[in-house]
Design goal:
Number of strands: 32
CATH architecture of one domain: Beta Barrel
Number of helices: 1
Largest sheet: 4 strands, antiparallel
Strand content: over 45%
């Protein structure tokens, strides 16, 4: 008896098979096209939103949190490890953005000055003799020198370089974080140059010293690099390189990263790089006398008087290779201009704030009712903390 379950089966022809495969391919192509179109639409929307957000200007904000404070007029503010350092003549405190105390340190200083690197900060009395090495947890060590302090530079592990004045001679001492002396001695140039600025690298191996020489009736500066590692052991006094610059004063030095030093002269800015013996890698000629110079690990900015009669100031920002990143004019009679940790440029007057991106986009302007002391960027591009007279507010731009 025949199998009735198979009576409807038939052999598919080769032509029918080809037609089936063709229709299957066409269907797959349609699905792929739809998927690609949907993906492109999503990408365009995301890119468009990103461009819109990056170019959008803000003038107001929502307050997410606020807290009242009581500070003296002499209080200064710095951002440190995501929280707020407040310091004045009679002490320093470290608080979170809600003004909750993390630590408090009392002292008496005439000119309290702060330097920060990595997990450490140092507070010292410029022209005085007191030094406090601090971390997020509080004081690590206090040190009292026997000579007036000209400058202190701190490394990432708490080692400090201290430049002191001894009449016509500069004295340099390196201390570890426990207060032990590592290096000590007079420091001067070959022809009697007097040290006016120092910078200690993050790893405490390299030290840059700027020395000013006016003994021959003309101004010149010598920039010397010391190496306290194995490389410097084979050099006289650990000096691995030195360069002299005629008709220039170099009053400020800073290791903006472990192996990159920014030297700020009165006629040009110089960037030196190198793991052991830093070498000059770029220069930025100053057009005229700068009104302000500011920098971080990525950029350096200069403010000049503007030649534009409608604007008072010209702002130029360069990357550390010497390439111009942005140029703007502005009319604000500012009290401070700085690069924020977000790489944005903040121009602050007594009661107003202007923020530009590193690409020159004018992002934010606001006039406050209270005096503005500090602007700290938050976790996203729209979040900022504003430290005002008597109050700290955490905001989101709108």
């Amino acid at each position: 008896m025949a199998d009735t379950k198979k009576r409807n089966l038939r052999v598919v022809s080769e032509e029918e098979n080809r037609d089936y495969k063709r229709k299957t391919r066409e269907h797959r192509v349609k699905v792929l096209k739809r998927t690609l179109i949907a993906a492109i639409v999503v990408l365009v929307l995301v890119a468009g939103t990103g461009i819109y957000m990056s170019l959008r200007q803000y003038s107001d904000y929502d307050i997410r949190a606020s807290v009242e404070r009581t500070d003296t007029k002499a209080t200064a503010f710095k951002e440190f490890k995501g929280n707020i350092l407040k310091y004045s003549n009679d002490g320093a405190s470290y608080t979170d953005h809600n003004n909750e105390m993390i630590w408090n340190q009392t002292y008496e200083m005439s000119y309290p000055t702060v330097d920060i690197c990595g997990d450490y900060l140092v507070i010292y009395d410029k022209s005085g003799k007191k030094i406090y090495i601090m971390t997020q947890k509080g004081m690590v060590r206090s040190i009292e020198t026997n000579l007036p302090i000209a400058q202190v530079s701190i490394a990432a592990q708490g080692t400090i370089a201290v430049l002191m004045d001894n009449q016509a001679t500069g004295v340099l001492t390196l201390y570890d974080k426990d207060g032990n002396q590592l290096v000590n001695g007079a420091i001067h140039g070959e022809k009697g140059g007097f040290p006016i600025a120092i910078a200690l690298s993050d790893d405490a191996i390299k030290l840059a010293v700027s020395m000013l020489d006016i003994n021959e009736g003309r101004v010149k500066s010598t920039l010397a690099f010391y190496n306290f590692g194995k490389v410097g052991e084979n050099e006289i006094d650990h000096v691995v390189s030195a360069s002299t610059y005629d008709d220039m004063v170099i009053p400020e030095l800073n290791f903006v990263s472990k192996d990159c030093l920014l030297a700020i002269g009165d006629t040009k800015l110089m960037v030196f790089e190198g793991t052991q013996k830093p070498k000059l890698t770029s220069e930025i000629e100053l057009q005229e006398e700068a009104k302000s110079i500011f920098y971080n690990e990525n950029y350096v900015g200069v403010v000049y008087n503007s030649s534009d009669e409608a604007m008072r100031h010209l702002l130029q920002v360069y990357d550390l290779s010497g390439k111009l990143a942005m140029e703007e004019t502005f009319d604000t009679e500012y009290t401070s201009v700085e690069l924020l940790s977000s790489n944005e440029i903040c121009i602050r007057s007594k009661t107003a704030c202007d923020i530009y991106t590193a690409r020159g986009v004018y992002k934010f302007h606001h006039e406050f009712d209270e005096e503005l002391y500090k602007v700290i960027p938050g976790g996203s591009s729209l979040n900022y903390t504003f430290i005002l007279n008597g109050i700290t507010i955490q905001t989101r731009l709108k």
